[in-house]
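On clarity, I found the account of how folds are encoded harder to follow than it need be. What matters is that the chain and its backbone geometry are given together, residue for residue. For the editor and my fellow referees, an illustration may be useful. For illustration, here is how one protein appears when written out as sequence plus structure tokens:

___
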Amino acid sequence: MSEAVAKLEDWREVPKARIAMWLLIGGELVIFGAIIVSYLMARIRYPEWAEQTAFTIPAAGFFNTFVLLTSSWTAVMAHGAAHKKEVKKALMFLGVTLLGGVIFLCVKAFEYHHDIEMGLTMTSPKLIAEGKYIESVFWTYYYTMTGFHASHVIVGMTIIAIVMMQIRKGENLHRVEYAGMYWHFVDLVWIFLFPLLYIAK
């Protein structure tokens, strides 16, 4: 048997659902990557955007980063428990992961409310304290990138909730892995967004 044929057979042993999930994540990364590259090019073109990060709430962003990292760890633990067919433990860890998503969205909603109250919107620039201006294009990127990410958090939470309902019946324990893969992708994207939008000067 040739090496090429052996490799082909190895690929056939990989679950189709796992390959499909990797393809989905790859496509989503291309979309997020395009938005992030566009933002970076604009930041280079307009270095004054660095001042806009002073109007964000880094503490909230850092807290949400901690929440997502923790929820990714519990997703890993849920996968391990499901692999051992420990349904109750898998459900517990998935529940904590789901809670992490709820906390993340609540913090984001608080930030949006605060930002809008401060006049930090996609509309025309507005003079504020110390002679600094709100740059509306920066905030257009901010709301687009974080809003698009938040929508993926909601999708991830929906996937986890569906998987939880299934494994509660003792069915499809292998899908815990796929739900975890998507959740890690959501976490990875935020790790890029947080420094770019909150602390990059």
